[in-house]
């Protein structure tokens, strides 16, 4: 992975986590709770890179790179929203030895 420069992070994304609660009538309800916002680089996967990512999760389409956040341990209960685009987290890959970036491999979802 190349160095992560702030100019590369040009997409503002909202990080959301799925939460569930019991409603007044005893029904289980799920909703998305905003955890925070950050700058990111959103890149579609092609060729060999896509093939390797699909070995871990068959519907991966996009890689989103952000600065690493120590307060988040992203898994499939998270999603990222950029404008009208919604990306479900398939899996993550921490950056190189310096651990400055977080690579999030995602699937596109419909609103």
Helix and strand topology:
Elements: E1 11-22, E2 28-44, H1 47-56, E3 62-67, E4 78-82, E5 85-94, E6 101-109
Antiparallel strand pairs: 1-2, 1-4, 2-3, 3-6, 4-5, 5-6
Labels describing this entry:
mainly beta, about 110 residues, single chain, about 55% strand, Thrombin, subunit H
Could you walk me through the main structural features you see in this protein, from its secondary elements to its overall organization?
The longest helix has 10 residues, at 47-56. With 111 residues, the protein is mostly beta strands. It contains one helix and six strands, in the order ββαββββ. It has one helix at residues 47-56, and strands spanning 11-22, 28-44, 62-67, 78-82, 85-94, 101-109. It has a single domain (9-109), classed as Bacteriophage SPP1 head-tail adaptor protein (Thrombin, subunit H). A hairpin with a 2-residue loop joins strand 4 (78-82) and strand 5 (85-94).
* Largest sheet strand order: 1-2-3-6-5-4
Specify the CATH class. Mainly Beta
If you average the pLDDT, what whole number results?
A: 86
- End-to-end distance: 32 Å
Q: Helical element count? A: 1
Series of H and E elements: EEHEEEE
Write down the oligomeric state.
single chain
Q: Helices and strands: which structural class? A: mainly beta
Q: Based on the structure given, which CATH architecture is correct?
A: Beta Barrel
Beta-strand percentage?
over 45%
Which regions have little confidence, pLDDT < 50, spanning 5+ residues?
none
DSSP summary, beta strand count? 6
- When the domains are counted, the total is 1
Shape: globular
Sheet bearing the most strands, described? 6 strands, antiparallel, barrel
């Amino acid at each position: 992975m190349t160095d992560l420069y702030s100019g590369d992070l040009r997409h503002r994304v909202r990080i959301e986590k799925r939460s569930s609660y019991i409603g007044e009538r005893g029904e289980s309800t799920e909703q998305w709770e905003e955890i925070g916002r950050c700058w990111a680089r959103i890149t579609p996967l092609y060729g060999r890179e896509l093939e390797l990512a699909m070995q871990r999760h068959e519907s991966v389409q996009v890689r989103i790179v952000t600065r690493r956040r120590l307060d988040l341990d992203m898994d499939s209960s998270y999603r990222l929203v950029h404008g009208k685009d919604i990306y479900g987290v398939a899996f993550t890959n921490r950056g190189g030895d310096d651990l400055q970036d977080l690579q999030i491999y995602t699937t596109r979802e419909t609103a």
